Amino acid sequence: MKVYYDNGQDIVKQALDQSIGFVLSKGVVERRKTSMTDYRLEQAADCLCTIELAAVKYAAKEDGETYNKFFGGIGTFKKNWLKQARRKMIK
Predict the structure, then answer these.
(1) Most buried residue, 13, 75, 87, 89, by CB count within 10 Å?
(2) What torsion, rounded to 10 degrees, do the Cα atoms 84, 86, 62, 64 define?
(3) Do 4 and 11 meet the contact criterion of CB atoms below 8 Å apart?
(4) In this structure, are residues 54 and 67 in contact, taking their beta carbons and an 8 Å threshold?
(5) In the chain, what are the helix, strand and coil shares in percent, each to the nearest 5?
(6) Nearest-angstrom CA–CA distance, 79 and 53
(7) For residue 3, what are the contacts with CB-CB under 8 A and spacing of at least 6?
(8) DSSP code, position 82
(9) Between 55 and 4, whose confidence is greater?
(10) Other residues' Cβ atoms within 10 Å of the Cβ of residue 63
(11) CA 68/CA 18 separation, integer angstroms
């Protein structure tokens, strides 16, 4: 299992470390220093998947306040996020 976190918030790092350590056997967790640039493809895929999931949530009217705060309303989302993401889709 790989966990990518930039250690930006100490409380999040502690929560990740404790929960992973609790679930997995001792000695199987390996930590390495990495750079975010090493994982650009994964970041791009994560972003596009998040946008597609948001499209599904907006369509089902299950978007909630978090989606609205981040993406804006459905119109703003479609215009600024979904349209741009779908232009980059490989067909």
Answers:
(1) 13
(2) -20
(3) no
(4) yes
(5) 65, 0, 35
(6) 16
(7) 16, 20
(8) I
(9) 55
(10) 19
(11) 31
pLDDT tens by residue, 38-79:
778 888 888 999 999 999 999 999 888 888 899 988 999 999
Q: What is the DSSP letter of 8?
A: -
CA separation for the pair 36, 50 (Å, rounded): 18
- Interatomic CA distance for residues 76 and 59, integer angstroms: 14
**pTM > 0.90:** no
Say if CB 3 and CB 28 are below 8 A apart.
no
End-to-end alpha-carbon separation of the chain, Å?
A: 31
Residues 6+ apart with CB under 8 A from 80: 71, 72
